[in-house]
Amino acid sequence: MPRKTLKCLFGVDEGSRANRKVVVGHRPCPSNEEIIPPKFCDNRIVSSKYTVWNFLPKNLFEQFRRIANFYFLIIFLVQVIVDTPTSPVTSGLPLFFVITVTAIKQGYEDWLRHKADNEVNKYKVTVLEDGKAIQSESEKIKVGDIVKVEENETFPCDLILLQSHRDDGTCFVTTASLDGESNHKTHYTVPNIGSDLESLTATIECEQPQSDLYKFVGRMDIYKDSQEPIFRSLGPENLLLKGATLKNTKVIYGVAVYTGMETKMALNYQGKSQKRSAVEKSINAFLLIYLFILVSKALVCTTLKYVWQSKPGQDEPWYNEKTQREKDTNLYLKMFTDFLSFMVLFNFIIPVSMYVTVEMQKFLGSFFIAWDKDFFDPEIKEGALVNTSDLNEELGQVEYVFTDKTGTLTQNNMEFIECCIDGFQYKHRDARDELDGFCDTDGPVNKVQQKAGREKEELFLRALCLCHTVQVKESAEQDGLTDQVDGSILDETPSPEERGFIASSPDEIALVKGAMRYGFTFLGLESKTLKILNRSKEVEMYELLHVLNFDPVRRRMSVIVRNGSGETVLYCKGADSSIFPRVKREEVERIRLHVERNATEGYRTLCVAYKRLSPEEYAQVDEDLKEARLALQDREEKLTAVYNQVETEMDLIGATAVEDRLQEEAAETMEALQGAGIKVWVLTGDKMETAKSTCYACRLFQRNTELLELTLRTLEARGRSREERLHELLLEYHKKAVQDAPPVKAGITRSWSGANHDYGFIIDGASLSLMLSSSSESKPSLYESLFLQICQNCTAVLCCRMAPLQKAQIVKMVKNSKGSPITLSIGDGANDVSMILEAHVGIGIKGKEGRQAVRNSDYAIPKLKHLKKLLLAHGHLYYVRIAHLVQYFFYKNLCFILPQFLYQFFCGYSQQPLYDAAYLTMYNICFTSMPILAYSLLEQHIGIEDLLDNATLYRDVAKNAMLQWLPFLYWTLLGVFQGLLFFFGVRYLFSNPALQDNGQVFGNWSYGTIVFTVLVFTVTLKLAMDTRHWTWINHFVIWGSLAFYVFFSFFWGGIIWPFIRHQRLYFVFANMLGSVSAWLVIILLILLSLLPEILLAVFRKNHGSHARQMKHRLPTSGTSTIFMLSQTASTHSFSWSD
C-alpha cells in the first residue's frame, strides 16, 4: 500500500505543519522523503527574572514605576538644580535607602532562582550515542536523543517510552510534582520496538507542545529493512513527563520529544510577577490627592506672590534691591522657579518617611509570623516561613481561598472503613482476618447481627482482589515485606509502600488492604495471571483477559478474568450513579441506603458488581475490544461504546466505604473561613468522586447542599453537542442559583440562614477548557460572566481534573472579575505553583510532595489548620495596624505643613520657612516616627483569642474598610482643623508680642517653635489615645519621643555649632519656655486640638453604655479610632466603644 494512502487512512495530513517530526536517535530513515531536521529549543530551564547585565536598569525601571519613588526622584532633582529653601539631602537620602534595600532584596531572591535553575540544568543524565551510554548534562539533551533513566530518578524532559526493564513492557511513575498525585501510574512501551535500540530506525510525528498534562496525540513510524513502515499510535500512556519520577522499575529508555521550556511542566509554570497589596494601591490613590493639594498650594502662593509684588514698592523695597542678574532674568522663568521652590517648601506634605516606615513595619512585622509558637509543627520540627513581607496586610483582606485537595485538605492516605455485602454492613473492628467481625445492616431490624451468605462474601472479596490495577512491589526491592504481602497481620495504618503495593489510585490500595483484613490477599500479577490467597489459605489463579480502564465520564472500571475452571467473569466497580442503572433494580434498594449514608459521612463509596460471560459473549467482546484499540481516530469513543455494551445486566454484590483522611482540623478551618465571609474553592487534579467526598468531609458541602454539576458527564447527556449543552446548563444554573435565589443580607452566612437554599458548584478541566474556548470564539465574556455569577452565589466550588495551568486560569478569572476580589491560593505540590503565583497571596504547605510550593509561595505553614490563625488573627491585626499607620502619616504631615502654607500669607510669599531646618528634617525621622512604628507592630485592638473565636470579626475590615474615602476624609479634616488651630492660636498669642517679663518681644523663629511644639505633642498624644494594647515599648517610645524633642530643642539651641552658618534657634526654645503665656498657649492649644476626640469619646460613653455588652467590633463609618480605656490585665485588649 502506498505511503500516502496509509497516511490518509490514519487521518494524517501530509502537508500538515501543526505537528512536529522527531527522528529517533538522529538516525536517517530509509524513506523517499527527505527529512530536514527542524530546530528545537534546548533543554535549559529558566525561571529567573534578571541577568547580570539587565539587573540594574530593569530593577530601577520597575521601582520607579511606583508613583512615590518617581515623585521623590523629581523632587530630589529639583532640589539639586534649583535654589530651594531646603537641602537635597532631605529627599535624596530616604529615597536612596528605599531603592537600595529593595534592590538588594529582589536581587537576592533572583540569585536563589538562578541557583535552583543551575541545579536542574547541570543535573547528570545518560544519553545513548552510537550505542554507547555517555554522561551528559540535562541542559544538553536535544529532541531525538535516547535517554536512559534509572529508578527514583526524575525524567529530564518529556520522553516517549521505548524500552523498560520490566518483562511486561511497563514502568511506574509518580507525578506528585506535576498534578499532586503521589500514587504510582503505569506507562507502556511502544509495541514492536525490539530490544536492540541501536538498530532502531523510526520517526515520531506528534502535536506541537501544549500544556494539558493528560493529553498527547502522536504516531511512530518504525522502519524495518526495506518493508513498508509499521505505524504505532502514541497516547498519554506512552509519554513520560519531565518532573515525574521513575518508581519500581530499574531502568527505562525513552526518546526526547519536548525539551526545556517546551515541556509540559515548563508550559504549566507561571512566571513570578511582582505582587502589590491593596494597601499600596490605596496609598497611591491618597498620594495623588495630596499631590493635587501640594500643586494647588504652590500655584496659589506663586500667583499671590506676583499679585502682591505688582503693587507699587512691593517688588523692590529699599532694603532689598535687586541685583542686575535678577533684573535680567526672564519673568516666566522666574515664576516657574518660584513655583518649584514652593513645591519643595511644601513637599513635606507627601510623607517620604512613610515608605521607609511601611517597609520597616512589614519587615519587622513578618517576624511575628515566624516566631508564632502555634505555627510550630513537632512532626517536621519547623514553623511558619515568610518569603515575602510585602503582603502581610493582604492576609486580612482575603475574599477567595483556592485550595488544593491532595496533601492540603487531605493526608492522601486512604483507609478502608466498612463494606456492605448483599445489604449487610461489615464494619471492621480489629485486624482479625475472618468475617466474624462486627456485622450490622441497613435493612430490616430482624436482620441485625446477621450476615450475608458465605458464597456472596467470598464473591465480593474476590471482586475486591481482582478488579483493580494494583501491583505488588517486587520482593527483592523490599526490606522484608514479602511476609506482609502474603497476608500476615499488619499494623492498622501502614503506608502503601510498607505494605508492598503500588497503584495509580490510593483507594485501590485501600480496597485490596480491606480484603486482606477479611482473609483474601492479593499476591500479584505475573504474565497476565492474577494470584490471590483465599481464607482457606489456598492460592487461586485467574487469567487476566482485559482491563476496561476507569475514565471520568463512565466513572467505573472493570476486569474480565478466566478462573481455573474456564469460566469467564466480568468484575466491575464504580460510583453508585454509574453502577445502579446497569444492575437489576431489585438488588439496588438493599445497597442504596448504605451508600447514601456513607456518602453523607464524607466517605468515598464504590459499588461492586459482576457478570458471567458465555464463551460466545466473550468472543464477541474480545473481537470488539481489539478492533477498537487498533483505531487511530476516535479510539476513546469506540472503546467507550464497547465498554458500555458489555457492562450491562450485571449482578450487584455490595459496596465499600473508604476514607481519605483529612488534615488535622481541616473541617474546622474551612468552617472558620466561611464564617469570616471567605469563599472557598477546591482546585484539584483528582477525580470528581474523591474530591466531592472530601468536600463533604470538610463541610464545604452540607447534606442539604444542591450540587450544580458542569462536567463531561453532564455535557454529553441527551445526545446534544457539548457547546449547546454548555450554554443550556449555564443558563439553567444561573436561573436557579442567581435569578430565583432569595436576596441574602450582607454578612449572613450559611450557618445562620438555614432557610436559604445552599448550592455547590462542580466543574472539571475539560468543561472549563470548553467554556473558555467557546467564550473566546463566539460570546466573548458571556459564559465566563455566567460562570462567575453562579459561583458567587454558591457556598463552595469544586474544580476537579484540573491541570496546573487551569488552576491558575481559574484564579486569574476570579481575580480579574468585578470588584477585583483579593485571592489566596494554598497548596503543597509543584502542581500548585502556578496558582500560588497567580493569586494575590500564595501559601505553601510544608508537605510530603517536595518544597516547590514552599519556595514559590509568599508564606509557608506546616499544616492547613494554621491558615485560620494566619488570616483571622495575624492578617486582621496587620491590616488594622498598617491602615492606621497610613492614615496617621498623612494626617500628621498635613498638620505639619498647613501652618507653613498659612505663614506665606504673612511673609510676602517669600518662601520663608516657618520651622527651622533641623525641625523640618527631624519631624518625620525622629520626633514622630517611633511611636507609630511601635503602634503598627504591637497594637491589638481585639485580643487574638477573640479574633479566633469569632470569625465574623474578619468581615469588619474586609474590602479595605479602613482605607476607604470616608475614613480618609475624616483624617484629612482632622488634620486641617488642627493645623488651622495651631497657626491661628499662636498668632492670637502674638497679637501682643511682648510675652516675657522684661518686655522683650518674640521673633518669627519663636513663633514657628511654639507651633512646632504644639504640633509634636498633639499628634503624639493623639496616637496615645488610639493605643489600646499598652506595652512597655509603647510607653517608652511615646513618652520617650516627647522627652527627646524637649531635650533636642534645648541641646540644639543651647550650643553655638561651628558648622552652621545661620544658627536660628540659639536659646529660642529656652526663652520660649521662660514665658508663662507661651506655656499657657501650648497647653491650651493641645487640649483644644484633642477636644473633639475627647468629647466624642464622652458622648459615646454616655449614649452607648450598651456597647460594653456587645462583641468587639471595628467602626466602619470612618470616624475616629478613639477607644474607651477598659484594658483587661489578662489579654491586654480593649473593648470598642459603640
From TrEMBL:
The keyword RNA-binding does not apply. The active site is at D404 (4-aspartylphosphate intermediate). Residues 854-1102 form the P-type ATPase C-terminal domain. It catalyses: ATP + H2O + phospholipidSide 1 = ADP + phosphate + phospholipidSide 2; a 1,2-diacyl-sn-glycero-3-phospho-L-serine(out) + ATP + H2O = a 1,2-diacyl-sn-glycero-3-phospho-L-serine(in) + ADP + phosphate + H(+); a 1,2-diacyl-sn-glycero-3-phosphoethanolamine(out) + ATP + H2O = a 1,2-diacyl-sn-glycero-3-phosphoethanolamine(in) + ADP + phosphate + H(+). PROSITE patterns: ATPASE_E1_E2. The chain crosses the membrane at residues 64-82, 285-308, 339-358, 968-990, 1005-1024, 1036-1060, 1066-1091. The keyword Zinc-finger does not apply. Residues 37-91 form the P-type ATPase N-terminal domain. This is Phospholipid-transporting ATPase. It comes from Oryzias melastigma (Marine medaka).
